[in-house]
């Protein structure tokens, strides 16, 4: 066991944990003031709910020994998960630390998903959905990619979660949003506090360094490459988005810069440790442009109801990044992988990436539909008229982010 690696991954785990509170603030600033606490609660409650789902079954289904489609019950209830190492996972870090690092990935995936249904989903059905989603959607895909499952055996690669985290959450969020109602809360409302969004965006940005760099599980040349690529990608994504925004709208907005930053980070996540610096810039720039186009044109044309564009940034960004990984991946950068299309001249790597993306999209969408349909048998998914009018903060949580007068009246009536 290498204590330097242990301390390194410990720090990265804390950085990835920071992403969930960061994303809660990012989303919170984008909604109406009467729903800001509910939006934040949807992300923060993910920390609680996902922890139990991951501990009980999620980690075992993801990384336990099993078949090519699903891990077994080796680590059910964290059995045999402690300071010991596991040769199939990493011989230089405690298994419990690796488990916590992966828990943070699962948590941020749920937080991302919540952006699609902000201001329009009942809170308790949402929590039930989250618990089931971790076990039924996230864990199988994590096993396919990182637990020795069929995607790994196919030869498709995902460095830090472009497929596992971003595509699953983006697609699932979109399906859930559509099921709640295409016309519900569809009108575009201006963000109520972009300063909160900025603070949240900064926390997500910083946390992403732990997200990508920590995926090397040690600070070596691959980790250093992924660190540089992540820094470059955030700027390239912002540049791509801002260039599109300027040419199309003659403005360069703060929310555009932050959205582009996220798009670039999402796009580089599948390949951060597999591509050179210039490739990272190209991938992230394309990611920023693609996400801008998806949100400002495709979404408007198709009229799908993705509240805070979780699908537009994370779903689209993850798909673009995963496919482009097959184009730009380089054996020279990482000797554990084969050259991509740009260096080999063949379509094989792009094809396997496409297959992995396609199946993940279909699986995530179908399973999300089944989970939501089942919950819908017992409870409505969407908010009711009173919640829409008075706000979810007041009705569901009995508190307000900014004004106390109405809450005091509410408490007195009780």
Automatic annotation (TrEMBL):
The chain crosses the membrane at residues 6-27, 47-73, 93-114, 126-147, 159-182, 194-211, 223-244, 251-268, 274-295, 307-330, 350-372. Residues 8-402 form the Ammonium transporter AmtB-like domain. InterPro entries: Ammonium/urea_transptr, Ammonium_transpt, NH4_transpt_AmtB-like_dom. One of its GO terms (molecular function) is ammonium channel activity. It is a multi-pass membrane protein. Its main location: membrane. GO terms for cellular component: plasma membrane. It is found in: Cell membrane; Membrane. Keywords: Ammonia transport, Membrane, Transmembrane, Transmembrane helix, Transport. It comes from the Bacteria. The keyword Transmembrane applies. Belongs to the ammonia transporter channel (TC 1.A.11.2) family. This is Ammonium transporter.
């Amino acid at each position: 066991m290498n204590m330097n690696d242990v301390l390194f991954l410990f720090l990265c785990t804390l950085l990835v944990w920071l992403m969930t509170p960061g994303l809660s603030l990012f989303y919170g600033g984008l909604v109406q003031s009467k729903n800001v606490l509910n939006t934040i609660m949807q992300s923060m409650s993910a920390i609680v709910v996902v922890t139990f789902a991951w501990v009980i079954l999620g980690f075992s289904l993801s990384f336990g020994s099993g078949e090519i489609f699903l891990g077994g019950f080796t680590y059910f209830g964290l059995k045999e998960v402690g300071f010991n190492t596991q040769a199939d996972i990493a011989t230089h870090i405690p298994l419990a630390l690796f488990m916590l690092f992966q828990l943070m990935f699962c948590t941020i995936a749920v937080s991302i998903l919540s952006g699609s249904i902000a201001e329009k989903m009942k809170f308790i059905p949402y929590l039930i959905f989250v618990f089931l989603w971790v076990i039924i959607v996230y864990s199988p895909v994590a096993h396919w990619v990182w637990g020795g499952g069929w995607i790994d055996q196919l030869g498709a690669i995902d460095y830090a979660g472009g497929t596992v985290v971003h595509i699953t959450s983006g697609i699932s969020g979109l399906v859930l949003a559509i099921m709640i109602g295409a016309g519900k809360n569809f009108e575009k409302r201006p963000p109520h506090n972009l300063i909160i969004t900025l603070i949240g965006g900064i926390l997500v940005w910083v946390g992403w360094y732990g997200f990508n760099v920590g995926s090397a599980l040690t600070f070596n040349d691959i980790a250093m490459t992924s660190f540089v690529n992540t820094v470059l990608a955030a700027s390239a994504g912002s540049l791509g988005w801002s260039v599109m925004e300027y040419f199309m709208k003659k403005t360069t907005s703060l929310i555009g810069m932050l959205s582009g930053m996220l798009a670039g980070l999402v796009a580089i996540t599948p390949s951060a440790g597999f591509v050179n610096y210039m490739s990272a810039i190209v991938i992230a720039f394309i990611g920023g442009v693609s996400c801008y186009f998806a949100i400002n044109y495709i979404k408007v044309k198709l009229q799908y109801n993705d509240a805070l564009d979780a699908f537009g940034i994370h779903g689209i960004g993850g798909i673009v990044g995963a496919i482009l990984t097959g184009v730009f991946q380089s054996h020279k950068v990482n000797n554990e992988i084969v050259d991509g299309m740009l260096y080999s001249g063949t379509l094989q790597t792009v094809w396997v990436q496409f297959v992995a993306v396609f199946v993940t999209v279909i699986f995530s969408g179908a399973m999300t539909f089944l989970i939501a349909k089942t919950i819908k048998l017992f409870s409505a998914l969407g908010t009711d008229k009173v919640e829409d009018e008075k706000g979810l903060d007041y009705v569901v949580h009995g508190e307000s982010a900014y004004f106390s007068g109405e809450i005091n009246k509410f408490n007195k009536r009780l």
